[in-house]
Amino acid sequence: MDNDWILAKTPAGVEEIATRGRRVPTRLRTVLILVDGRRSVRHLSESAAALGNIREALAELRHLGLVAPIEAAAHAPRVAEPASRASVAPAARLQPQIVAHSRPAPQPVRRRSLALARLYLLNAMEQSLRQADQPVRDHLRTATSRAELLMAFEMCRDIAAELGVAHIDTIEEQFMGMLPEES
Fold it and tell me: What is the pLDDT of residue 123?
């Protein structure tokens, strides 16, 4: 993670702050709250050093899909979308937002592996499904192929629908991003 990256909360990150749906550990939640779309990784690390290894926490939040880097135009001022309405002064809320258009931020290469996808799904199901995740866990323990992991995800989707888990689409997006392509 580059020191000059500026991170912002993703929609899933904003949802987590509002609902605590994923039951993110307190330390990670605190770091998530600090991410505002304006401060660099370096600044966050320096200003919140008392919380421990902030870079590691930011990497974990990024892995969970709760934060993402935004492009900071080096030569032009940019107005980022605020992390929340409360983080903007009342007078500024009345002014229209000006967004600087520039080339899209380069997307970092995402590592893909069956093991990574399986671990992510285990973690996501533990946080989202709470006690209802045992059938998925049993299936994931023996899953050794892409097809078996996809079948496990479909089980997760069914359980999530029964429990009313709203962010299953976010979990699917992250999971599919980690799952290797078919060979």
Answer: 79
* End-to-end CA separation in angstroms for the chain: 30
Buried b (16+ CB within 10 A) or exposed e, 22-44: bebeeebbebbebbbbbbebeeb
pLDDT given for residue 110 in this prediction = 59
Radius of gyration of the chain (CA): 18
Does the model's pTM come out above 0.70?
A: no
Q: In the block, which residue shows the tokens 């009342």?
A: 90
Residues ≥6 apart with Cβ < 8 Å to 53: none
Is there a contact between 42 and 54 (Cβ–Cβ < 8 Å)?
A: no
DSSP per residue over 33-44, as a string?
A: HH--SSSBHHHH
The secondary structure of residue 66, as a DSSP letter, is S
Give the DSSP letter of residue 96: P
| CA 155 – CA 153 distance, rounded (Å) | 5
Average pLDDT (125-138) is: 72
d(CA 89, CA 69): 24
Six-digit token string for 35: 């991410």
